[in-house]
Amino acid sequence: MASAPSKLYADDVSLVVVLLDTNPFFWSSSSLSFSQFLSHVLAFLNAILTLNQLNQVVVIATGYNSCDYVFDSSSDLNRSFENGRMPVMCSSLLQKLEEFLIKDEQLSKEEPEGKIKSSLFSGSLSMALCYIQRVFRSGALHPHPRILCLQGSPDGPEQYVAIMNAIFSAQRSSVPIDSCYLGSQNSAFLQQASYITGGVHHKPQNLDGLFQYLMTIFATDLHSRSFIHLPKPVGVDFRASCFCHKNTIDMGYICSVCLSIFCKHHKKCSTCGSVFGQAQSEAASASDKKRKTPET
Amino acid sequence: MASTHVTKRAKYKTTIKDPGTPGTLRMTFEKILFVPHNPKSAGKLDVEFRYIKGKKHTKEGSNKPPWLNLTNNQNGSFIFEFENYSDLQECRDFVGKVLAKGGEVSEKPTVAYPDEQLSAAEMELRIKLLQEDSELQKLHKQFVLSGVLTETEFWATRKKLLDREASKKTKQRLGFKSAMISDIKPSTDGRTNKVTFNLTPEVILQIFAEKPAVHRAFLSYVPNKMSERTFWTKYFRAEYLHSTKNSIAAAAEAAEDEELAVFLKQDDILASEARKKIRRVDPTLDMEADEGDDYTHLPDHGILREGSKEMTESQNELYKRSLSQDINRHAAVVLEGRAVDVELEDTKAVAEALAVKTEIESSNKGESDGDTSRERLDRLSRMTEIEDLQGPNTLPLAPLCIKDPRDYFDSQQANALRSSGDALGEIEQIKCGLSTQEVYGSLRESISSIKAMGLKEPIVKPEVAHQVFDALTNSISNTKYHIGKNPQESVLDRLPRKTKEELLHHWTSILELLKHFWASYPITTTYLYVKVNRLKDAMSNIYPQLEEIKGSVPSELRHQVSLLVRPMHQALDAAIQHYEASMQKRSAQSGERPNGYV
Predict the structure, then answer these.
(1) Is the pLDDT of residue B452 over 80?
(2) What is the DSSP letter of B187?
(3) CB B420 to CB A246 under 8 A?
(4) Which of A10, A147, B128, B476 has the greatest number of CB atoms lying within 10 Å of its CB?
(5) Into which family does the record put it (chain A) (predicted)?
(6) How far is CA B528 from the centre of its chain?
(7) Are residues B577 and B502 in contact, defined by beta-carbon separation less than 8 angstroms?
């Protein structure tokens, strides 16, 4: 459902939903320590709230086993977390974050060795989109929403389908997804998300200046993006993961009914159940060979 | 003119002013040969008709000498002067014949596959599609006319396009006119006592549709008892009698001639049909017919056909017609539509076709008459039911089957877990020697430390911030010039238009070639082998063309163009590699068969 134009609001009122990566396995091996990261982020959130009186910020923590809302600037519950050393907003966020981590740890179960330790990005993306939908339906007067993902964990290929679904629904509701990747490799999911929805993707070179990156690139509201130049990635990694093994592939088989991608020839599509025909001598069979080349 | 060649004495002139070299002109279907009488002169001419584009000649009545001017492709012309105009005429006719034939031949695309019989309609469809879509036409010209692909192969993948074109062409059947053309007014000839009725096939069809009694009479009388002409004469005599409003005379003639009587009576078929329809009507719903339709027997009904308001005796009732009956009948027939789609010229065929159709209809209605009454009763009871007193009426529905989405996602999870062991080579793996507890613990520690000490002071060091800002600004301004502001803006739009079109055309032609190439594997027949060879040659020719494009572009765009061209290269390379590998395998397998036939 597209948002109704909110003419009574100024053009630059924004609602930023921040997806914070709290995957402990990533943070224990990252060059940037979690507390430094939090300082950068908290200062940045404060700055967003000062840009415009009507701006709103929502923070969702992307954990290893679960996701949850940890901060909502429009709620009144922040009063109870008074702490002399920092603004009220920060202390309430930290408190909630701590509680979330405790809960998350309790949910952890014994994992087989060798599994990729990725966070539940698809879950937090879906929660963000649900929150934004609620804002859309709250009336004609609402800020322009966008999503900012601060991710460091690697992509979990088993989440490919869920993440792509979320990306397409964000595209449909015109919600840009900005992403800032803090890890060492490249994240194909984040690049695709920003490319498809019209957001900004950036991988900071110098993590000590993370606050400066956030302020320069990600604090820009949607209206100003029409005349402020933001960094563009040189190319997007469009490779998909196959549906059977979750490997990243660039040449594979596609079911012509539901467009699911497979790396090997199958008798039957596992998504829609359609049976693939026999290959005839000259004409192509039901699943064509398709080549996806990464755009550079 | 049955000759396959023409030989005449003529003079050959290169221009109009040239006096001309006398000699013999010999024309066959393939070429024109002119040999001068004097072997030493230089005017010998041997031209094939393929190169002749057109012809001009001087008119007979003018004062000019008889010249024939043949123009060729390169805009040169050959002028021949004949001895007299009849010679010119002959040659002109011959040339015209050859040119017409030649025109035909060049338009028909080369059908190399002799098994395919194309109907004229099919050819027309193809030509129309080619004319409408210039991209398709370019591809067609490039591949089919140069022999890389045959017609059949080219169109084999485009069946959907052809079908769509064909379905657009299904003719709409014209309905009947609403004017009552079956009501023919004769034209009278003032001089003689004849009246002339004009009868066209369209009118015949209408008469048969509107007057089933006449139709029945036609089927039974023609050609057994009388010819068609006699039949129509009698019919129009009846019409004339009606028009004279002389029902007494009509009765008298009807008594004499029984065939005529058929035309003069009321149409009993219509009456019985109306009665049948009334029986079939479902009073709850269907107003197909009602009591009022069977009005033909009612007395004093309506305006009489020829406008007379006289009351006449009932014995002549039979021979009167009323205007409303005819108009209603005509309207009913027009609304039914054109029931038969037969060539109108053959009256007998039309009559038979209509008869067959009415027979089918009446038999369909007739055989269900027994069941229909029961069915009607059923429907009546259903329509008039009282809902409160009925039991629950559950309609048969297919049960809704919503698959649990967790099934799908869980199965994917299981797959991922099972095979993630092998997939880790590419993907980054976090080397984590610590246990879960330790890891969570360290995270919580960070949070407590920040709670205790507050945010980092300063959040970011000024030098670092400055560095970051500089680097960002530089990279943004660089990429803006190289790639463009909008991440979704395409590189293609920044190239000059001609280059862009060429690149896109190359891409579609490469796709076409690759489609046919990959579809031909595995090679099982010689036809496929030959085809694959042709395709491979065409593909190798594309490489130099791509290089040319790259060279023609200004240097700052060259890198972009080479990036765009790279996937084309890759696709072609993959195809050619496959080809060479299969060739090697083939030659390794069949040592004693060098031509590669398996």
Answers:
(1) yes
(2) E
(3) yes
(4) A147
(5) Belongs to the TFB4 family.
(6) 30
(7) no
Taking the C-alpha atoms of residue B571 and residue A293, their distance in angstroms, rounded to an integer, is 10
The burial of B172, by beta-carbon neighbours within 10 Å (0-12 exposed, 13-18 middle, 19 or more buried), is given as exposed
- Residue A257's pLDDT band (cuts 50, 70, 90): confident
The amino acid occupying position B400 is L
Q: Is the pLDDT of residue B131 over 90?
A: no
Average pLDDT over residues B243-252: 68
**Nearest by CB: B471 against A205, A229, A230:** A205
> If you average pLDDT over each of B91-105, B175-189, B503-517, which comes out highest?
B503-517
What number of other Cβ atoms are within 10 A of residue B68's Cβ? 22
Which residues in chain A have their CB less than 8 angstroms from residue B532's CB?
none
Closest in B423, B437, B455 to A39, CB measured: B455
Q: Residues 436..465 of B with a Cβ closer than 8 Å to A: which?
A: 436-440, 442-444, 446-456, 459-461, 464-465
Q: For chain B, first and last CA: distance in Å?
A: 53
Q: What percent of chain B has pLDDT over 90?
A: 1
Stronger pLDDT, B137 or B371, i.e. the higher one: B137
Q: What is the average per-residue pLDDT within A185-191? A: 86
Q: What is the pLDDT of residues A102-152, one digit of tens each?
A: 999 888 877 766 667 888 999 999 999 999 999 999 877 788 899 999 999
Q: What is the pLDDT of residues B380-415, one digit of tens each?
A: 777 776 767 766 666 676 666 666 655 555 555 555
Residue B131, burial from CB neighbour count under 10 angstroms (0-12, 13-18, 19+):
exposed
Give the model's pLDDT for residue B528. Answer: 82
User: B80 and B13 in contact (C-beta within 8 Å)?
Assistant: yes
Cα distances from B118 to residues B113, B122, B150, in angstroms, run 11, 6, 14
The answer as to CATH 3.20.20.30 being correct for domain A6-227 is: no
Burial call B191-222: b when 16+ CB within 10 Å, e when fewer:
eeeeeebeeeeebbbbbbbbbbbbbbbbeebb
Q: Is A164 on the interface with B (CB under 8 A)?
A: no
Cβ atoms B205, B350 nearer than 8 A: yes
Nearest to A14 by CA among A220, A201, A177, A169: A220
CA distance to B337, B382, B477, per residue, from B172 (Å): 12, 39, 63
Which value does ipTM take for this structure?
0.76
Contact A161 B518 (CB under 8 A): no
Q: In one letter, which amino acid is A239?
A: R
How far separated are the first and last CA of chain A, in Å rounded? 33
CA dist., res. B121 & res. B314, Å (int): 61
Q: Judge: A208–B461 Cβ closer than 8 Å, yes or no.
A: yes
- Return residues 78-107 of A near B (CB < 8 Å): 83, 85-86, 90-91, 94, 97-98, 101-102, 104-105
Residues 214-253 of A with CB under 8 A from B: 216-217, 229-234, 243-248
Q: What is the DSSP string of B261-317?
A: HHHHS--HHHHHHHHHHHHH--TTT--S--GGG--TT-TT-S-BTTS------GGGG
Residue type, B558: R
CA–CA separation, B235 and B104 (whole Å): 51
Quick check: helix, strand or coil at residue A279? coil
Would you give the DSSP letter of residue B494?
G
Domain boundaries of chain A, sorted by first residue? 6-227, 240-295
CA B116 to chain centre: 19
Give the per-residue pLDDT at A227: 86
The dihedrals phi and psi of B218, each to the nearest 5 degrees, come to -60, -45
Report the amino acid identity of residue A154. P
Q: Are B287 and B280 a contacting pair, CB within 8 Å? A: no
Range in A103-107, A172-176, A257-261, B554-558 the model is least confident about: B554-558
